[in-house]
Amino acid sequence: MDNNTLYPGSFHQYRDERMVDKHLKRQKLIKNQLPMTNLVELNDEYKIELMVPGISREEIMLEIKDHLLTIRILKKNKHQHPKQSYQMHEFDSECKDRIISLPKNASGEFVCAELHEGILHVHLKKANQASSHLHTHVAVY
Fold first, then answer.
1. Opening angle at CA 101, ends 106 and 112, nearest 5
2. Cα–Cα distance between 31 and 44 in angstroms, integer?
3. Of 135, 138, 134, which Cα lies nearest the Cα of 123?
4. Which tens digits make up the pLDDT trace of 49-86?
C-alpha cells in the first residue's frame, strides 16, 4: 500500500460511466416503486404484504380486475401553513400506486385485507381452477 494516498483501502474505479448511470437509475426505479411488496404462496392462499408506514386504512384503495391487484394510496399532508407564501409546494399530498399481477388460480371472490403496524396484509384464497374475469373492490380492516 502506498503511504501517500488519502484512502487507506483499495479503490476500484468503475470501468465505464454507463455502468454507474445504469446502477443509479435502477436504484431510483426501485426506490420509487413504493409500496414495497412481498407475495407469498401458502398451501391454500396467497399472502401479499405491502409496507405502508404512516398510512391509515382510509387512505388505501384496493381493486381486483382481470387478475391484477391495484393498490392506491392517497395521503393528505396534515401539516398546512396557510400564512406562508410558497414558491413551490409539492408535499401537500402523496399518491402512490402499485399493480400486482396475480397468479391465475388466485380467487378474487374471497379477499381479506388488514392493516397492522404499517404493513398491509392481503389474503387471496386459491381456486381449484382459473378464476373468471372478476372486478371487485376490497375494504381494508
1. 45
2. 32
3. 138
4. 999 888 899 989 999 988 889 998 887 766 666 667 77
C-alpha cell at 59: 387512505
Per-residue exposure over 31-67, b if at least 16 CB sit within 10 Å of its own CB, e if not: eeebbebebeeeeebbebebebeebeeebbebebeeb
pLDDT digits (tens, 9 = 90+) for 25-49: 665 555 555 678 999 999 999 999 9
Facing residues of 50 across strands? Answer: 37, 120
Cell of 97: 400506486
CATH number where 111 lies: 2.60.40.790
Q: How far apart are CA 55 and CA 113, in angstroms?
A: 14
**Predicted local distance difference test score (pLDDT) of residue 87:** 75
Could you identify the residue written with the cell 388466485?
A: 106
Structural domain including 84 reads 34-138
